[in-house]
Each structure stands twice: as C-alpha cells, then as structure tokens.
C-alpha cells in the first residue's frame, strides 16, 4: 500500500508520515507544491519529509502554472466570494490535487492523504477534486478521521523524535500563496475583536502617510501582460503588484464568511495583487463589454466563484462557465491606470482600441452626435408596460 500525502512541512503533515506508516503499514510519498507561499526553502521541506520517514519526497514548482492557469481565470471571472474574498486558498487546492494524482500514477499510489480537519472547506476541495480526477483513489484524513489535536500531534512527534520544532506555535492559522494570505483562529474568533497589525504580512498599515504609487496595467483578452509598459508573465505581474499594492495597504479584508460545511467563520485576508488586478479588470470590462453581456456575466462570475469556493473546480458546470467567460474576454484588451494609496486601488484612466465608449455620443458639449429627438418615443415605448399595468390597478381599485 502506498499513500500520497499532501505535504506542507509543518507539524501536522510531518507527523502524518510516521502515523500513516504505523496505522496502515503504508509507504508514504510526500508531495509538496510550491504555489508561491514563500517562507521556508522547499529543499528543506523536501528533506524533512524524508527525515520523517517518507519513502519518496517530491517538490513541484507550480508557481507559473498557478498564476497562469488558476489566478488568471479567477481574474477573468472577477472572482470574489460573497463579493469580497478572492478565493486565495480555494484556488490552490485543485492545483495541489492535480499534482497528487500525478504522483499517485507515477509511484503506484492507491491512497491520498491530507491534513484537513472536518470543520473546514479544504477537505471538500481536496476530495471533490480527487473524485473528479481519479475516483479510484481512496482518501485518508488523519486530523479528521482520527480526531487529532495539536497536543496529540506534539506528543507523537516527540515520541518518534521527528526533526520538527514542536514548540513554535503561531496564535493564528495561516494559509498563503501567490494570490493572497488567509488568517484565522486565535483572538480573531471573537468577531468583536479588530485585527491588529501583527496579523498582517503582505500589506503595510494603510494609515501611514506615504506617496501614492501609479501603475498602468496592460491586458490582452483579459490576461494581464505588462506593467508600466514592461512585458511580464502573470506570475511576475501578481508578484510585483503584491509588493507595490501591499506597500500601500491595499487588499485587507476582514469578513464573516459562509463556509461550505454550514458554519460562519471569521476570516482576515490580504490580497494586494489580486484586489488591484480585479479592480483594473472590472473597469476594462466596463469599457469593452456590451451591456447585456456584462449584466449576464456578473451572474456567471458570482456562480463561478461559488463553484470554486465549494471545491468544484473540475465540475461540468465550471468547465462550461469557463468557456463562456473566455468568449466574453475576446475584446477585453487595453490599459488601465491605477493609483495605489491609502489601502485603495483606484482607477484613474482607461484606454482601449476595443472601447465601446464613444466620446461624441457621451459628450454634452459641442459635437454631440446623440440624436436626442429619438429619446421621447423610446421613453414612451419603454414605459408603456408599466403605464398599462398602472391603469389596470386603478381600474380594479
């Protein structure tokens, strides 16, 4: 029996290696996926898995793939769950699942394991993704299925002499990647408590006076391709905007969120690059997408975000919505100027060869090409159904 483990290098997944071996007799293949989370060197993570007893330890540099194939589609969908959360963790899970399945095929794995609890969304995201990509794989979730606690994990690590620091404990639960950073638990569980500055890492205090930062973002068919005229990859663009928008305090989110498992959870997010890019992309769509298509796309965007949040990245509906969104991006090309300052990303300029904005129709000054004589009849016809209905109400008392 071989178990492929989604490995982060932390306490829980490090303890999972000998635990799974003891409990099931399985050989454990550890798979760590770099999605731009930063922090510890991935070579150290790879070696720790071997030192904890893994028979194989795989590290996948998926940063370019994550930016191109997951962050960009989320941007094109203006994906904000509950109109606020840019799907930071939800976006990385299907990518990790993809590489877990690939490792299972390479090494002959029959089971997949993750460190998720039974209270969160990630268990669903992992297992729904696995069911879609390889329904023959069985799942073992030690933290959920065997009721682990941190105390039990520490005791097991000490008993086995594992090469991990079991004394270091953050007061928060943190998940981060290229698209943003999620913080929960600790004193944040009291929803009356406001976040304090040490919660944040990707963003600076927006109340500190500083000079604003102006940036011009170039899009081609909804894909960001340049900053200030410099051609860059999606990975480079998100990373630079994380730095620049983060330095201005852009992208802080404090919300009570509806989890898939049915509970409400207080979450604090930082997503400076994502929030800046979504603000720019939405405005470029305002300029280049026809009214009825834009109205309908807003409902598609919302449903797309809900599907991804709910772990259904590989679902048939998500695939069909992808096709609609891709078609809607055909004319979303041009430049948007943003001012990053005081915790906000504010659009101050728009420019596009595909623009539907016609100055001669929009202006109220000399040169106005709009034939206002047509408006009177239009308004009368437009309001005719309401007028007839009102007459009926009056007639029937």
Automatic annotation (TrEMBL):
Coiled-coil residue windows: none
Gene3D superfamilies: Argininosuccinate synthetase, chain A, domain 2, HUPs, Single helix bin
CDD domains: ASS
Residues annotated as domain Arginosuccinate synthase C-terminal: 172-388
Residue stretches making up the Arginosuccinate synthase-like N-terminal domain: 2-163
Enzyme Commission numbers on file: 6.3.4.5
Locations listed in the record: Cytoplasm
Record pathway: Amino-acid biosynthesis; L-arginine biosynthesis; L-arginine from L-ornithine and carbamoyl phosphate: step 2/3
Top EC group: ligase
PROSITE patterns in the record: ARGININOSUCCIN_SYN_1, ARGININOSUCCIN_SYN_2
UniProt keyword annotations, A-Z: Amino-acid biosynthesis, Arginine biosynthesis, ATP-binding, Cytoplasm, Ligase, Nucleotide-binding
GO cellular component, one term: cytoplasm
UniProt record similarity statement: Belongs to the argininosuccinate synthase family. Type 1 subfamily.
Subunit structure: Homotetramer.
Protein name: Argininosuccinate synthase
Lineage: Bacteria, Bacillati, Actinomycetota, Actinomycetes, Streptosporangiales
Gene: argG_2
């Amino acid at each position: 029996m071989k178990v492929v483990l989604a490995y982060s290098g932390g306490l829980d997944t490090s303890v999972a290696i000998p635990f799974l071996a003891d409990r099931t007799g399985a050989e454990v293949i550890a798979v760590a996926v770099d999605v731009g989370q930063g922090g510890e060197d991935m070579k150290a993570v790879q070696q720790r898995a071997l030192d904890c007893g893994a028979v194989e330890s795989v590290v996948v540099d998926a940063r370019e793939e994550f930016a191109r194939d997951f962050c960009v589609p989320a941007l094109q969908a203006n994906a904000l769950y509950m109109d606020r959360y840019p799907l930071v963790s939800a976006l990385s899970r299907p990518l990790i699942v993809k590489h877990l399945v690939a490792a299972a095929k390479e090494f002959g794995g029959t089971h997949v394991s993750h460190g998720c609890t039974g209270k969160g969304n990630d268990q669903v995201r992992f297992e729904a993704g696995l069911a879609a990509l390889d329904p023959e794989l069985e799942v073992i979730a030690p933290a959920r299925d065997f009721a682990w606690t941190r105390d039990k994990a520490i005791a097991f690590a000490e008993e086995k002499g594992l090469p991990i620091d079991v004394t270091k404990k953050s007061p928060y639960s943190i998940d981060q990647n290229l698209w943003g950073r999620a913080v929960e638990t600790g004193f944040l569980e009291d929803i009356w408590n406001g976040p304090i500055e040490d919660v944040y890492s990707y963003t600076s205090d927006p109340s500190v006076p500083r000079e604003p930062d102006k940036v011009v973002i170039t899009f081609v068919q909804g894909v960001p391709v340049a900053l200030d005229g410099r051609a860059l990859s999606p990975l480079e663009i998100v990373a630079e905007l994380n730095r620049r928008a983060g330095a201005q305090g852009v992208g802080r989110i404090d919300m009570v969120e509806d989890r898939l498992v049915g509970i409400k959870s207080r979450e604090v997010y930082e997503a400076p690059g994502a929030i800046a890019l979504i603000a720019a992309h939405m405005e470029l769509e305002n300029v280049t997408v026809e009214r009825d298509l834009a109205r309908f796309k807003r409902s598609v965007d919302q449903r797309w975000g809900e599907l991804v949040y709910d772990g259904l990245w590989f679902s048939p509906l998500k695939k069909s919505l992808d096709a609609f969104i891709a078609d809607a991006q055909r004319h979303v090309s041009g430049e948007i100027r943003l001012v990053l300052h005081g915790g906000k990303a504010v659009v101050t300029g728009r420019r596009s060869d595909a623009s539907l904005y016609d100055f001669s129709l929009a202006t109220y000054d000399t040169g106005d090409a709009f034939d206002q004589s047509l408006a009177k009849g239009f308004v009368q016809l437009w309001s005719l159904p309401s007028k007839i209905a009102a007459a009926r109400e009056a007639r029937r008392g």
